[in-house]
Amino acid sequence: MAAPLPLEVTAMTNADAPLIRHTGVSYFPTAFIARLPYAMMVVGVLTLVVAARGSVGLGGLNSAMVGLGAACVGPLIGAAADRFGQRTVVALTGILNGLVLGAFAWVVYSSAPDAAVLALAFVIGATAPQVAPMSRARLVGIIGARVAPGRRERTYERTMAYESAADETVFVFGPFLVGILAAGIAPWAPVVGAGILELVFVTAFALHPTGAARLLGSAGDRPVGPKRELLRPDLVATVVGIFGVGLFFGATLTSLTAFMGDRGAGEQAGLVYGVMGIGSAAFALGVALMPAGFTRRARWIAFASLMLVGTLALPFVGSVGGMVAALAIIGIGVGPTLVTQYAFGGERAPIGRSATVMTILGSAIIVGQSLASAITGELAESVGTGVALWMPAVAAAIVVGAGIANWKLTPARTAAAVPVPAAEELAARAG
Predict the structure, then answer these.
(1) Distance in angstroms (rounded) separating the CA atoms of residues 299 and 33
(2) What would the mean pLDDT of 115-124 be, rounded to a whole number?
(3) Minimal CA–CA distance to 195: which of 185, 203, 206, 186?
(4) Per-residue model confidence as pLDDT tens digits over 313-353
(5) H or E element that contains 145
(6) Which of 61, 127, 161, 183 has its CA at 20 to 30 Å from residue 40's CA atom?
(7) Residue 99: CB partners within 8 Å, gap ≥ 6?
(8) What is the pTM of this model?
(9) Are 343 and 299 in contact (CB under 8 A)?
(10) 250/394 Cα distance (integer angstroms)
């Protein structure tokens, strides 16, 4: 007999109840705040290193090391969560990462060599708690186990839309918050603040009843798909597409910072960047209202193409007002593209490896953001802002290319379906 679900989750077991009745009211605000530090890391590390060590090149390299750490270890964290359950894994990484962020702020100002700073930056990325991917994996499991089959597809689509909108919001608000703390307190404040948020909210997310191993299952009591399924071409195309979105985030924010800096208002880059986030989050939430005939594989290409068209205008913008208008248009394409990619990722996750796949996707974003921040910053410094402003278009082109590959890899008859394999597996167990 299956063990009973946590009290907050079983408070409403009616399969026709809204998802929030199955997660508990506290889940969504806790998960939202807990993912903020992840969005603050790359920009916070860059800001601190540049201020403390006086080198833009070193700052960009440290940002890249954060991404490298996430790329090397992030998927292993997801695999550990699939194997042992989220609660322990998320709690340990949150506490460790919070302490490492505090240590980084101290080491950067010390006489320690640059190599030590780079090593700690790698550890920051390696220990980053994967809150967003873990949240998606939890919700996919709850939808499969507790939502009526007839409502499952729509609930899944709306949930992925919300999760992507939440990511959009924090990836825009995160750099904005970094700027406020750095300007209002000190360059070390964003990094230390992110550490404090982790110790409080990531721990709360880990201990939330939805994180119980008995709800999500583990490799010891459910089937697990072979690792080779993680290399399926359709899943690889999804990862490449999300990596392209990460490149876009890093290239856009960095080139925009250079653009505003040329006009003596570099500290306002976060505010201008936020214009893109508003439209992006709004249209991400609107994905659930789009007609079924507008299939996911078509949405990917359509909205990614809008991103590309918008970014091609950036190098020719000559005023802040023009930049705001261009970013507003680009934002319409970003949110729905990200929603669609995560929906494909959830669908294509091998049985028993939902957290692994979601963590790979989350790591791909921060790796892309870190890499693009370093490259775009170097271009802006050595060649000029005009060249740097082409980098968002390069990133958008990668997203479009991955979308075209995804179109060819996705059969037309299943393009609009949302089978959610991991959720179906959990539903069978719960039934």
Answers:
(1) 29
(2) 93
(3) 203
(4) 999 998 888 999 999 899 899 888 988 888 788 777 777 67
(5) helix 131-146
(6) 161
(7) 195
(8) 0.72
(9) no
(10) 12
